[in-house]
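G., the chain you wanted modeled:
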Amino acid sequence: MFDPGSAVAAASEHRSDRWLYAWALGYAAIGAASLLVPLYAIELGADPFVASALEATAGLAGVPGALIWGRLADRTGQRRTFVMVTLVGTGLVLAAFPFLSDLGSVLVANGVLWFVVAAATPVVTLFMIERVPEREWETRIGLLNAYQRYGWVGGLVVGSVWIGAVSIRYGALFAQRTFFLLCAVASLAAVPLAFYWLPPEATTSPARVARSTRVLARTILGSGRYVKLVPYAPSRAIFSIRSLGMRRFRTRYPPALRRYLLTAFVFSVAFSVFFGPAPAYLTSLDYPSATIFAFFIVSSLASAVAFVPVGRITARISPQRLQLGALSTRVVLFPLVGLVGLLASPALRAVGIGVVFALVGLTWAVVAVTAAGLVSRIAPADVRGEALGLYAALSGLGGGIGGITGGLLAHTFGYRLAFVAAGLLVFGSILVLLSAGISVPPSGAAPAAPTSDREPSTGE
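Predicted structure as tokens:
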């Protein structure tokens, strides 16, 4: 399991890793934009449905974007160019947001943003593993995820401070628009650094990356809520969906694996039913944008801190048991956010929401670690990489569907019912998981992944 505390030390062993500082700077702008765009739309008058549609667009645009850009990168071989395209394109799109005053254009620009972000996602992994022995790939991918993760959180932190300070004097809308420009400057400032520090063109074949299921699992593990954060998996994911016929799905994928992929799809929908309208809900409680940024910072940091301990715990406790515990906790947490919002005391309400968001972040770390591990270990060896790609694709698709569904429910029936629906969907995923017939020992024990189409016994 990757240790974030050793990231800088590991980077110092590779002179070419200096480009990660530029990438982290650009990712800070991307991370800030992930929350800034829906908050800006809300400030312009977006209802919960439109705000959730923005979240859904972000999840859906990155997957085909990664496929298109990945193919172009493979055909041209100019992989450095696609990192530049992401940084320049992100800066230009973010710079345009302050001049957009209608929700339709904001929605389109958000789709363009995440399509552009996907330009680099299929190739940054290749730069990380270039001229590195395969036994070190996991460490290298972990290093990439660490820089991305903390760059993302850093963008949220700066956003909270900037918007909080500027809003006091000039108002929330002005603060958000100026922060868009600051994010644009950060992304564009990363361009010359990346140009100077990026190593020569990577020659490692994406097919070689795809053959390493451990790398795919690590990549997915550090991805965050959506495939839009996955450095390599999106192109692999779309390829899996396109090439996987139903006959092959039934004959090559064991019943337990098919049911677990359904589980992952259902809980991905559920998570986005909650997160899609969440920014609009917090705004409805009269929290300023800076405070909303703070809530999401708490959740993101909780996830980041928990990844390593959760990985260690899986050596002693079976991953399906851990995941059942995390999912069961979210069944309660999602509706609880709506109930905490009813507290009369503003201080107690803020503390309560902060605690719930921290627990939501912790449970995400458990789900992310155990999901990639479960798919890796219950899939037959000959389809393991494909199964991981399909898992990533279903997560992105579920995120898009969930975002739209959550916004529609919140707009029609209110936020609290949407959050209850999210909890019920998580409960539904638990029922599917319990019916999957998965028996996977702790990672410290010898794995017993099935090698045939026969469903393994539960043993529980």
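The CA atoms of residues 267 and 409 lie 17 Å apart.

Shout if anything looks off.
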